[in-house]
Structures are given as C-alpha cells and as structure tokens.
Design a protein that fits this description.
Elements: E1 5-9, H1 13-25, E2 29-33, H2 36-46, E3 50-54, H3 62-72, E4 77-81, H4 86-94, E5 99-102, H5 107-121, H6 125-128, E6 137-139, E7 142-145, E8 150-153, E9 156-158, H7 162-172, E10 179-180, H8 181-189, H9 197-211, E11 221-224, E12 228-231
Parallel strand pairs: 1-2, 1-3, 3-4, 4-5
Antiparallel strand pairs: 6-7, 7-8, 8-9, 10-12, 11-12
Length: 233
C-alpha cells in the first residue's frame, strides 16, 4: 500500500469507475471528478500526486483545466482523449501535460504510465536526506538541483514541468553529448512512446522558452541538425 493519491477526471462514469477500481488494486487512493469545474476545485483542495485528465469534459474542457492547474500544481498530468489527433497532443504538451493517452486504452498501460510518471517525480527517502549542494549541476549561468527539481538561471528560479526538468537533467548530466529523440523518449518518459518525436520537439521548445534569454538563439539546449539535442558547456 502506498500513500499516492490519484485524481481521475472523466465524465464517463464507467471509465472513471474502472480506473478507480484498478488503481486502488495497485495501492493508490483515488478521487473522481466528473466535470472540469469539479476537477479544478478537487485538485486544489486534495493536492493529488497525479491527475488523469479527460479532454472532453462538461462545463470546462480538459485543455482549460490543464492550463489552470499547471499554474498551481507541479504533479504529473496525464491527458486522456478519444481522439488520436497530433494537434491535440501538441496542445496538451504546450499547456503543461506530462503525458497523453488515447482511448481505448488498456488498464495495464494506464497503470504503467501512472507508475512511470510518479517514479520520475518521487525522490527516494535516502536521497532527500543527502546534501543537495553536492549533486547540483552547473552549466554556464544555470544551476540545476536534481533533488529539488528546480533550475535557476541568472539567479531566477524557473517553473518547469516534470518532463521539462527531466529532459534538462538528462542533457545536462551528459554535456556535449547528442541525444536522439528516441533516446530522449526512453530516458525521460521511460517507456515506448511509439516514436512520436513531436513530443520531444514540443518539450524542448517549451523548455527553451523558459530557460533561454532568446529561444531562437539558445545558449543551453542546442540542436544538432538531423540528429537530436544536446546541452553545450
């Protein structure tokens, strides 16, 4: 049994109930919201460890819910949609979602994605007790603290999503090493993402907008044309 709380947001009661039953079998506690307004209120009151968020919701749609909650919460958000549209995936990622799943999905896959996203976001207890200053990464005027999940550029703390931070940490711990999009997908998302390279491109673009002085002329996250991305020293 663990103490992780999952907020399930879906207006289809059957789907919400199935997710609830199976996640609770895995030891998670769950709460359910059936519309966008309720989702926002519940999320802010219970402070979940992860949110499963349907896009097609009554009252307030999933995109709007994601945008509002991302301003307040740092927990992983996995978007759920009946539409396998690339544009929806890109919009979701742009708004701060960490992951995207298309209905119908298998419960086993949902559980795997939930665990993978929580694992990336949760620090082992023994790591929390270590001196974080020993593990900080310094790249030019940027300091990355892997234990507190923060990046500081020119003295300013940047508000990064989990996937943005994981991507930055992966590249920064291997400076000047070029990672292909497929390698980044495996290293950051931790499972087969069906070769959707746009996921990496969108996350890199969003990261650059936050840490670079000029995102069109990046000083940190560089592109190796035809190959992938790297962080330069």
């Amino acid at each position: 049994m663990n103490d992780k709380k999952i907020l399930i947001v879906d207006d289809e009661k059957a789907i919400a109930d199935i997710l609830k039953v199976n996640l609770e079998k895995e030891g998670f506690s769950t709460v359910i919201a059936n519309d966008g307004e309720e989702a926002i209120k519940l999320a802010l009151s219970v402070n979940p460890d992860l949110i499963l968020l349907d896009l097609m919701l009554p009252k307030v749609d999933g995109f709007t819910v994601c945008k509002k909650l991302r301003r307040e919460l740092v927990c992983p958000i996995i978007m759920l949609s009946a539409k396998d549209e690339v544009v929806d995936k890109i919009i979701g990622l742009e708004l701060g979602a960490d992951d995207y799943m298309t209905k119908p999905f298998s419960i086993r896959e949902v559980t795997a994605r939930v665990k993978a996203n929580l694992r990336k976001h949760t620090l082992p207890e023994n790591e929390e007790k270590t001196d974080s200053s020993k593990n900080k990464i310094k790249i030019k005027d940027m300091v990355i603290d892997p234990e507190r999940y923060i990046a500081i550029v020119n003295g300013e703390t940047k508000d990064l999503t989990i996937k943005e931070f994981e991507l930055l940490k992966l590249l920064s711990t291997n400076p000047n090493q070029v990672f292909t999009r497929e390698q980044i997908l495996r290293g950051v998302w931790g499972y087969d993402y069906y070769g959707d390279a746009r996921t990496v491109d969108v996350t890199v673009r969003r990261l650059r907008e936050k840490i670079e002085k000029n995102s069109s002329d990046p000083q940190y996250v560089q592109t190796k044309r035809g190959m992938g991305y790297y962080v330069s020293l």
